[in-house]
Write a structure and sequence with these properties.
178 residues, mainly alpha, elongated
């Protein structure tokens, strides 16, 4: 075992200039070389494959506990996949309480995962503001869908309440005219 490994453990070096870099670095601080790993989509593919094989009850725990690697490509790949899982809910779907509740819960899990990835990106992309901005933009977009869903839920509830109030009012008028 080399002294370097004994002293530092696994050392990550820049392939461009040989400078030792931090484990969360996505680019070399010395020469600017971006670190890219070839199996980017393998992480997402592995995740999706396993996710489709487990029960819905265990999927929530699996999503939250899945460790996303810290390369820029894998972070962006995973975020892109996760953002596609956030589902907008129509006003009509809010009338189907079980369905909207299930979608709302699943969306919350995905948003939590995306926030987790954003935190990881804030560490690994600390020197890549543009990359982190893309990450933040994707996460913010997913959060906006959640906020839009909450607005639709309130509108649907208010609409139902208004219809109920009109029916009660009509019944009261009919009773008063009798």
């Amino acid at each position: 075992m080399s002294q370097e490994k004994e002293k530092y453990g696994e050392v990550k070096k820049c392939p461009g200039c040989g400078v030792i870099v931090g484990s969360f670095a996505v680019a070399c601080p010395g020469c600017g070389t971006e670190f890219r790993e070839i199996p980017v989509s393998q992480t997402v593919e592995k995740f999706y494959s396993r996710l489709s094989d487990i029960s819905e009850q265990k999927s929530e725990e699996y999503i939250i506990n899945f460790v996303v690697p810290n390369t820029k490509e894998e972070i962006l790949d995973f975020l892109t996949m996760a953002s596609s899982q956030i589902e907008p809910i129509s006003h009509a779907e809010y009338l189907e309480t079980a369905k909207s509740s299930k979608i709302t819960r699943r969306n919350a899990v995905w948003v939590r995962k995306m926030e987790q990835i954003q935190l990881r990106a804030s560490i690994s992309m600390k020197d890549d503001r543009a990359g982190f901005q893309v990450v933040s933009s994707i996460v913010d977009g997913a959060k906006r869908i959640g906020e839009d869903n909450k607005r639709k839920s309130k509108e649907t509830k208010l609409g139902c309440l208004a219809v109920f109030a009109v029916i009660v009012l009509l019944l009261l008028i009919m009773v008063a005219n009798s």
